[in-house]
Amino acid sequence: SQCKAYRASVFHCIADPGVVGAERSYEYFEDGLLVVEDGMVVEVGRAESVLPSLSPEVEVVHYENALITPGFVDTHIHYPQVGIIGSYGAQLLDWLETYTFPCEGQFDDSRHAHAQADIFLRELLRNGTTTALVFGTVHKQSVDAFFERASKLNLRMIAGKVLMDRCAPDYLVDTAESGYADSKELIERWHGKGRLSYAVTPRFAPTSSNEQLELAGKLFKEFQGLYMHTHISENRQEIEWVKELFPERDGYLDVYDHHGLIGERSVFAHGVHLHDDECRRLGDTGSAVAFCPTSNLFLGSGLLDLAHLESHGVRVGLGTDVGAGTSFSQLQSLNEAYKVLQLQGQKLDPFKAFYLATLGGARSLYLDDRIGSLQAGKEADFVVLDYEATPLVSYRLKHSKSLEETLFALMILGDDRVVKETFSAGASVHRR
Ligand code: GUN
Ligand code: FE
């Protein structure tokens, strides 16, 4: 068995700081030690107290001026959209037509898909993200490519083939039946294999017929532990369009609800313009919303009201939504999340922020028993953040008087440059 220890400052969230009472929401060890064996965390604590119990053969890797935290969790991202990040001048529906669909059209070519999956995964790991909920394209080979690459790195990843049988270019649509059959084939090939899970992935209500949504709901129930991943209430024109396409339904969420697409392991990206009754229904059913601040600002979609969602008990994770989002870095998502909430008179304190990017994301994905913190028994997915990554970060952190201030400076100033090393199941998968 392979045992190794990592010495640095260690910080991890162990509960939601917004809902805990007397309980502490995090642990911090200024001189900490993380002990990993066979890809799992076996112990975490103060170096002083853990070291004496460690067998002398165990190698201890010491990082100076660095912080070990759990790997980041990205609850909404599109792997085929790397090539269109930062495309100029459009809001959601134009952006889809002008940039997104032509880009996704190229993924019928499996070689292209493999190459893009490589670039995408390398970028995630460079940014310290070890788990993501990922859109493929409509082509089943796009998902094969993604899972093949993710499984080689032994990453905990969730992905699915896009279901889209209308209101999209001919080269990019499936049918209700082929979408169901292709998804089922992918589920049988990949779901539960190693650390991979499958997500039934209707793009959003406008691009699926009622027949397709019905079959998606049927599929969602057919296998244990499947996810459902889609978009909702991102943009006002989109919401109007859904009303026109589904006049018989009670609103956007009701379209998904009617077809059995909500509940535990259902993740809805954006939710910027959800109504009160929709938030309540999401909370009551254990569904989750992915908060994607860089995307919502970039496409001019709107400001997510986090306090409102949380008042209804909705699970909220953080998403980059690359390629509408403008950064792979969850630190940059937090930077923008802070400002989105500032504009609404809400505060995002750094403990809550890091919770959203780690354990809160894991909880949204019902994976908080496996990832999201560094407690013993969890999978050893972690990152080493470098306090001296850039002259500015270094200067700023030298003047920090508290952990709170340090974490806040990291989330405002940090990005891929502060990620010194990334570990997945105990193995180093990126090193700067
Ligand atoms: N709604 C439907 N498809 C998409 C997409 O690819 N990106 C975003 N941000 N919203 C969508
Ligand atoms: Fe998206």
UniProtKB/TrEMBL annotation:
Catalytic reaction equation(s): guanine + H2O + H(+) = xanthine + NH4(+)
GO biological process, one term: guanine catabolic process
GO MF, one annotated term: guanine deaminase activity
UniProt remark on cofactor binding: Binds 1 zinc ion per subunit.
Keyword Metal-binding: yes
Pathway membership: Purine metabolism; guanine degradation; xanthine from guanine: step 1/1
Protein family per UniProt: Belongs to the metallo-dependent hydrolases superfamily. ATZ/TRZ family.
The name this protein goes by in its record: Guanine deaminase
